[in-house]
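>> Question from a student workshop board

For tomorrow's exercise we were told to take the sequence and the ligand below, predict the bound structure, and bring the output to class. My setup keeps failing. Could a helper post the expected result so I can at least see what it should look like? The ligand is zinc ion.
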Amino acid sequence: MQQHTIQKPQSLSGIGVHSGKPATLTVRPAAPGEGVTFVRKDQGGAVIPAHALRVSTTMLGTNMTNDAGVSVATVEHFLAACAGLGVDNIVAELDGPELPILDGSSKPFVELLEQAGIAEQQAPRRALKVLKTVEVRDGVKFARLSPGRGFVMRVLIDFPSKVIGRQTIAFEMKPGAFARDVAWARTFGFKKDAEAMYAQGKALGASMENAIVIEDDAILNEGGLQADDEFVRHKLLDVIGDLALAGGPIEGLYEGEQPGHALNNRLLRELFADAAAFAWEAG
Ligand SMILES: [Zn+2]
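>> Workshop helper replied:
Here is what the output should look like for this input. Compare the format with yours to find the bug.
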């Protein structure tokens, strides 16, 4: 399997979920081996390479900071689209501190990449092969990577609301599968949590335009859900985005019960901390 980039630059704009302010994202082709890099045009072109060890905070999303202290926020839905479409090398230029939240899913990013066109490169892709089981826990929540063929993920969520409840999904990363089964699943949250965050000056851009909003046992969005299990599909989308920070496709089995951005990042750090737990191989 060869590495891939995009054919030509392409842009989209939208508000950030944290700031509520508009930002434009422009994607550009990148050379083999360069991976995904974010460029803050409003910060003198500061570069923030997408990697698990650059994750600085995981409040409301996955945020990264470079050595000079320049950050980029809410990278996971964009990274999931790149990983889901097999885009290894890409530059993501931004004129603000966070990626647009758009409709709260990865679908607009998938469309952006498809409009830019996927291009094969003259370099073999490497995969991160899991050699030993690593696991991280936070109470009843856990995330685990273990050896296995292909990249298979199993995710479980359990929320004390009748509209969500207990949902599970099993997914294998194969060409076309992400766009078909995962990309469109929107983020979700409870109205009371959004109100509490808003009062603290957080999540200023959050609305029913970019999230499924739940109040007790009811969904407030007029159009309802796109699928009964849209919630666990979005959790899977977040896992795919967070694990894209490994720096290449994973060869192994991921299992997560009520995982979040913090747990997923701890999992990759745990993996990278043990040189015997992984190997980079032709993917
Ligand atoms: Zn998400």
